[in-house]
Amino acid sequence: MSAPVIPAGGTIVDTFKQSFVDVPIDAENGNAIATTPFLDAAESLTTMFDVLGSVAFSPVKNDMLGNVKKLRDRQAAAPAESENIQDLCRNELKTKKHTATEGLLWLVRGLEFTCLALSANVAKPTEELADSFRTAYGSTLKPHHSFLIKPVFSAAMSACPYRKDFYTKLGSDQDKVVSDLRVYLASLEKIVGILKGFLDTEGKW
């Protein structure tokens, strides 16, 4: 894993191919979330695990990328029915399959885990990353993981770099790093909330 190169005067957010800030949400169509921008943004987020720097985070990153692929595969198979994430899943479920929908479920859990950890860490300037990630893991992914998977993720939490080392890698202007992250994470939190609500109502497969 190689960490992204931060442009001069920029932050980690500037390196993302797609930001959650710019993912279209159609409020007049049940908060429909545009498929390609959402998947591009989810993929971009996984570079954050490269900045965390430990191979222990590889399973976390690979799990999220694997779930993005399930959704992309369904989108490619039925593009006309997959312009937004919600329709993609509804139309897949009509075929009595749920590969992509299950992928979305796990992707949203992974996104929520990352969002909660980073949001808590930004909000608490004295808290170390390992503590923020451990707390977030306990309330998002851990209840759904088997006893075989839990140690793998626990190892990742323990391998978090020190807070000061991590933020330095996100950009040279620390005030801008925190400001950019706040805006980015607020957008991610909104999208996670929309998709969790959707899965709660539609995900009875």
TrEMBL record:
UniProt domain Glycolipid transfer protein: residue ranges: 33-171
Keyword NADP on this protein?
Answer: no
Q: Which GO terms describe its molecular function?
A: ceramide 1-phosphate binding; ceramide 1-phosphate transfer activity
Q: Which GO terms describe its cellular component?
A: cytosol; membrane
Under InterPro entries, the record lists: GLTP_sf, Glycolipid_transfer_prot_dom
* Tree of life domain: Eukaryota
Keywords in alphabetical order, please: Transport
Protein name per its UniProtKB record: Predicted protein
Q: Which organism is it from?
A: Hypocrea jecorina (strain QM6a) (Trichoderma reesei)
